[in-house]
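Example record

The entry below shows one chain as it appears in the dataset: sequence first, then structure tokens.
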Amino acid sequence: MNDFSPKFISFEGGEGAGKSTQIRLLAKWLTGRGVEVVMTREPGGSTGAEEIRELLVKGETDRWTPMSEALLMTAARAEHVERTIKPALKRGAWVLCDRFFDSTIAYQGGARGLGIDKMRDLQDMALHGLTPDLTFILDLPVDVGLARACGREALREDREDRFERMNFAFHENIRDAYLKIAESEPDRCVVIDANRDITTLQNDLRAQVNHRFVGMQ
């Protein structure tokens, strides 16, 4: 029996992990099986959240203190949840989100030094406990991810590379934080080796969705 009840799946990982590509492919696969899919992203995903995104992903790397950055990220997320995610789930759609609260836990909590537990508490307070049904953590070596991300941003006229320009140790700390998150929440989080070709990676994601949500062949 297929379980087509609404699901919330988040995609996490460092820069250049290929999240947006994999989301598009998984959405196409789900849509072909009769599932309504909403693809969204963070920071962003609603009008107000997209305005906050402009403040976060551009400018100098030291534009914000760690706490200011965390609060802006969380404010954007609270808007996104109320304006986009909750309405989609309520009408029965699946939501595929490029980043969610684990990004704040990893980036601001881990790499920016605010503390993983403190950032978890902030997310719980702002989101009233809303949690993805499944989180894919796309993991790959930092040097590989940064090379991909910098190549991608070089092609953009409106560059969103503030985080990519932070130092190598910052990105190593992000990767470590994500792996700690996955270890602490194995029922929700699945670590996927993202240092492989697109098709192999997508097949792994589909297999996990089948395993978790009952037999969509």
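Notes for this example: The mean pLDDT is 93. The longest strand covers residues 8-13.
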